[in-house]
């Protein structure tokens, strides 16, 4: 199974864009800073170049994971041990019939949204409770990540429609 690095790289830029808007002082930025216990002075003292580069690298890792959440064909390839060339002819026929099934922005967004609600929200909420942060803090961050990965997953899953990427196993 081929990995679409271009889709992942493009999706990895989404957290920066959505974060720029979400955490803007006119949106949730002031509330988030207050709930996180941050000040304008502390925010200014950061190495933004390092933060942005690190964010992109970590977002690429999330993109790799989101492929497996949103693109069902990875599961089919996993069922044959990861190498379609070693699979039985029935696998090739299956991929020919269903190799592009559910490859859309909407489908990827749906699976990523579900991941946000059932994985990201609990994860962030548990951390927030142990950090003695408010529910407001947890909900702002969980909603941000749910929204962000919803878009990322949509891009990663729906990229097929953009570039005509061939999922049918060729022998």
TrEMBL record:
Annotated membrane-spanning segments are 6-24, 45-69, 109-130, 142-162
In this record, what's one Pfam family?
DUF1761
Give the UniProt keywords, A-Z.
Membrane, Transmembrane, Transmembrane helix
Q: Does the keyword Lipid metabolism apply?
A: no
Q: What is this protein called?
A: DUF1761 domain-containing protein
